[in-house]
Amino acid sequence: MTDTLHAEHISEADIAGMVSLFYERIRQDKDLGPIFEANVHDWDEHLVVLTDFWSALILGTRRFKGAPIPKHAALPDLSWPLFERWLAIFRTITHDIGNPHLQHKANMMAERIAAKLWQVYKEQTVMTLPDTLPPGLEYYSQSPVFTPETLPEKLKATHTTKAGTYGLLRVISGIVRFTVEHSQTDYIVTSGKQIVIEPDVPHHVQFELSGSFQIDFYRSKDHVKRD
Ligand code: HEM
């Protein structure tokens, strides 16, 4: 059977029911409950967003407009066991609903997304670059705002800033993967965050999640005087 046929056995009401049962249950969990209570300020709105999210994934509707990756990346102290616990509760709920099509599809997607959320979370926590410039520099120019459509090929390939130039890369939305060539290290920079690009460090940039970023360029005050 195709996914479309599976989807025919699943209604919007099934999805809304699944979301509501799941969050009712997770709010009572001793480990996960407090994280949600600390970060979800309007539960009615959260349930609408999450119903839109699951409806988009399972029924292909287009109501969901959120950004789960940066939102989870910003939560303090997540761990893989917490994601496993989230998944275990999710599987119990989808099992109890008694719709095998919904259960199969939702579980599969939840597992895939949990792995992705954790991957991004882990990378950004382990690897960080300075987000403030050293003293004695002054601003001298700015790049355009880059999106996946306008990101120049030369930034996707190995390059460095101009001699003596520091860049301050600010992610406006989405997620950027910044790779430093010599250490083969990837830095995940999420929406609202910034990193310093040091002079003479070969690197390349790509979008991990569609969005936009901009770079401000700085150089030492002495450098300007020599011009
Ligand atoms: C350790 C596991 C998880 C925790 C503690 C967690 C916690 C949270 C919290 C606190 C929010 C609200 C964030 C905010 O509005 O600023 C949220 C939003 C959300 N979560 Fe999770 N979550 C987890 C796993 C997952 C998984 C596995 C999925 C998907 C399969 C998921 C899907 C979403 C979605 C779609 C939103 C709404 C994002 C948006 O508004 O753009 N979460 N989560």
CATH topology of the largest domain: Globin-like
The whole-number mean of residue pLDDT values reads 89
In helices, the fraction of residues equals 40-55%
Q: Work out the number of β strands.
A: 5
Estimated radius of gyration = 22 Å
Termini Cα gap: 69 Å
The CATH superfamily label of the largest domain reads: Globins
- In terms of structural class, how would the helical and strand content be classed? alpha+beta
Number of helices: 9
Structural domain tally:
2
Quick overview:
The protein has nine helices and five strands. The chain is α+β, with helices and mostly antiparallel strands and 227 residues long.
Characterization of this structure:
There is one protein chain. The protein is of the alpha+beta class and 227 residues long. Helices cover 47% and strands 22% of the residues. Strands 1, 2, 3, 4 and 5 form a five-stranded antiparallel β-sheet that branches. The structure holds protoporphyrin IX containing FE. Pfam families: TehB-like. InterPro entries: Globin-like_sf, Globin/Proto, RmlC-like_jellyroll, TehB/YeaR-like_dom. This is DUF1971 domain-containing protein.
Outline the fold blueprint.
Elements lengths: L2 H6 L3 H15 L5 H8 L3 H17 L8 H6 L6 H18 L2 H27 L10 E6 L10 H4 L9 E15 L4 E6 L3 E4 L5 E18 H6 L1
Antiparallel strand pairs: 1-5, 2-3, 2-4, 2-5
Bound molecules: protoporphyrin IX containing FE.
The site of protoporphyrin IX containing FE has 22 residues, from α3, α4, α5, α6 and α7.
What descriptive keywords fit this protein?
Jelly Rolls; 9 helices; 2 domains; 227 residues; binds protoporphyrin IX containing FE
